[in-house]
Each structure stands twice: as C-alpha cells, then as structure tokens.
Amino acid sequence: MPLREQHLQYFTTLQSIRMPRVMRVTGSMIALTLTAALVFLTFTPWVQTTVGAGTVTTLDPNDRVQEINALVSGRIERWYVRDGARVEEGDPILKIADNDANLIERLNAEQRQLLNARDAAAAALSTARIDLQRTRDLFDSGLAARRTYEQARIRVEGLRSDLASAEAAIARQQVDLSRQAQQIVHAPRDGTILRINAGASSTTVSVGDPVATFQPEGAKRVVELYIDGRDVALVHPGSKVRLVFEGWPVVQFSGWPSIAFGTFPGEVLSVDPTAQANGQFRVLIAEPEETDEPWPSERFIRFGAKVRGWVLFETVPLGFELWRQLNNFPPTLTQQPSSGAQTR
C-alpha cells in the first residue's frame, strides 16, 4: 500500500471529505466542453448577413397591376369577361352604351351639315378669288376704283377665315364622334382580369372611371426587401442575396448558405437613397441572369407573395458574429464595393 494511503487511513475525517469521483469526471467534462466551444467559436466560419422582409413585384410599372378605365360616359351594356378571365391584346372587355340612344345618328347628321358648310365656303372662296383677279385686272387698266379692288380683297380674306373655321368645327366634331365610337373597351395587352370593379348591366359610368383590374402577362419579377438603416451602407448593386419565398419548403441557415435548402439566389439591383416612413430602406433584387437555381415559376410564386431575404456580407468567425450581435454592431466591411456601386 502506498505511503500516502497508509497515512490517510488514520485520518478518517479527511478521507471522508475527499472530492467524489463523479465530481472529478463532471469537472473534466466541463473543461473539455469549454475548450471545444472556444475552438468552435474561434475557427468556425460564419457569413454575416442583414435580413429583411418584402414582396414580389415588377421593375417596369407597366407590368404591375393596373386599372382599365371607361373611355366614354354612359351605361354598361354588356360584359365580355369575368373575374379571373385570361384575355389577349385587343379582346373586348365591356361595351358601354350612351345614355342618348340617338347620339351617334345626331353626330353623323351634324357632321354632314358641317361638311356641306365647308364645301359651300370653299366654293364661295373660289368664286371670290376669280372676282378678285378680275377686279385687279380692271384696276390695273384704270377701269375700276381702288375701293372696289380693296373690298374684293377683304371679301377673299373673310371667306378664307370662314373656310378655316368650318374645317376646325369638322375636326372638333370628328373628335367627339371618335370618342363616342370607342364604346367597346379592349384589353391593352395579354393578361388576366383580376376583378370587375363596375356594376352589372345598366350601371352608369363616367369617362375615366375604373371598370376592371388587370394583371399583364409576361412581367419580369423582382423582389423588394426592406432592411434596417444600420446595415444599408454596406449593401450595394451586385451584392448577393439568398431568398425564401412564402409557401416554399425551406431549411435555412443564414450563416451557412451553402447547406441551406429551399433558398434561391438574388442580386441587388438598386438601393433607395431615402428611407421609407418606417425608417427602413427599400432594396430591389433581381434573379441572376446565369444561375443553377432559377426562381420557382409564377404558378408557385405569384406577384405580391411575401419574401424574406438575407444580403450576404463577409465571412467571420462565429464567436465574433455572436459578439457583434450582442453589441448591436453593424457587419464588418473588408472589401469596398466596385466602382459605380450605389451606397448610402
């Protein structure tokens, strides 16, 4: 028996308060855990990100949801579409009848009268010009007075003014007639009628009233995200983004985008120089032109769908990222954006 053990057997009290074996094992495990955690936090890479929420929209305002307006005032005579109907460019949407059923006939009759008045003015002007030429010849020969010659000239100018007024009246009347002829509203391009805004037949509408809501087809999708002003200075056109679309299955690791599932790539197009009313900045993100992970089709990701995105920054140790988050510091910037990039 070792000498130390021989001595301890005479000190029973001291022997009874020795550290139990389970405590020594627990202490060793805690020390190993702390060492492993320190190594893990020091050497594990983490991609810094700034997160934002937004929606799917379009870059071209002509591709966004728009209103179809009535071109003339009157009452709705017939609808050619319903909610959710797909239309092609030029397809009729509705027919509007004027409140005065005989308006077109009266406009046509008025046009005929104006045409007759113009022809009469043109004939009178032609005759006056012949008379003016005759009077000039007589005046040059000394057979007519100057007053007679000047009156002939004044009469020609007056008839020329009457002819111009008649032509202007015809032009105005043709505008009215063409407006009334546009009583069938057509689809401006291929797309879908989202909903009918006006009432049923016999409902009265005025010129410019919205009668239907229309979504054009073939629009290019982009994503608008809203990010915090603390990080916006580091976001610039060309920054890489990972997106999560509403309703799409996903397993997301913001700091390890390479092992995430169900996320899609994006690229920053622009950053608004002015904050929104809530203090956040809008960032427009487009689908990369060359990518192995194309965005889902419009069947699954429609306009207006909610999106969550992570703008990717620098790769730092995990421990540094935890320290940054606890202190609410902005991400680290070690590379300057390329020339021409838009920053705040």
Automatic annotation (TrEMBL):
The keyword Coiled coil applies. Residues 149-176 form a coiled coil. Gene3D superfamilies: 2.40.50.100, Helix hairpin bin. This is HlyD family secretion protein. SUPFAM superfamilies: HlyD-like secretion proteins (SSF111369). Keywords: Coiled coil. Transmembrane segments: none annotated. InterPro entries: MFP (IPR050739).
